Amino acid sequence: MTATAIRIDPWGGPRQARWQQTVDWPLTIAAILFLVAYSLTVIADVDVATADLLRVLILVSWALFPVSYLVEISLADHPWQWVVHHPLNLLFVLLPLLRPLRLLRVVARSAAFQHSAGTAFRARVLVYLAGTAILVTYIAALAVLDAERADPNANITTFGDSIWWAAVTITTVGYGDFTPLTLRGRIVATALMLGGVAVLGVLTATLSSWIVQRVSESEDRRK
User: Fold this and answer.
1) Domain assignment of residue 105, yes or no
2) What's this model's pTM, rounded to 2 decimal places?
3) In the chain, how many domains are there?
4) What does the pLDDT look like over 134-193, one tens digit per residue?
5) Burial of 213 by CB count in 10 Å (0-12 exposed, 13-18 middle, 19+ buried)?
6) Quick one: 92 and 24 in the same domain?
């Protein structure tokens, strides 16, 4: 049996790489559990005992990330350089709702994904973008509903409202029929707008590159 190759970061070194390989899937599962628990607290009408259990699950799954992050820093060959060159890891610690995006990163590195997407880089980018857009839309819908529903003047009061708002916001359509009123809701909206612009920018660049390549190949065949 061939051992799975460990990717060694130049700033992190082999000890950190072994740790990351060990905790990769456990942290991904913790991120999914966090999202499920948070979803239930926002969407579902649960009793007090279930709500307490969900809060404990959220707290435990949240705590795993800063602990793992500190271990990664302690094991790195060049700790400060590693921190500077890996801002996404710190972002996952500071913004728990982004942690389910780890699943996309793990899946993108898996052999099954590489085989199914083939060697085409653009195909992998498009699949990754689609997954990111769906997850970010869902997460933003949860966050804005959680922020808005306590406001008596809010017009985003159901999950249907929030998912519709998130969809039109990330696609930069912005009908304006639903708008966040709270500060926290507007912060979520700003982040989602920036995310939507970034996703559409990468998508446009990827499709443009593919079209240019196809035109070039067509011209080469005519020669």
Assistant:
1) no
2) 0.79
3) 2
4) 889 999 999 999 999 889 999 999 999 999 999 999 887 877 788 999 999 999 999 999
5) exposed
6) yes
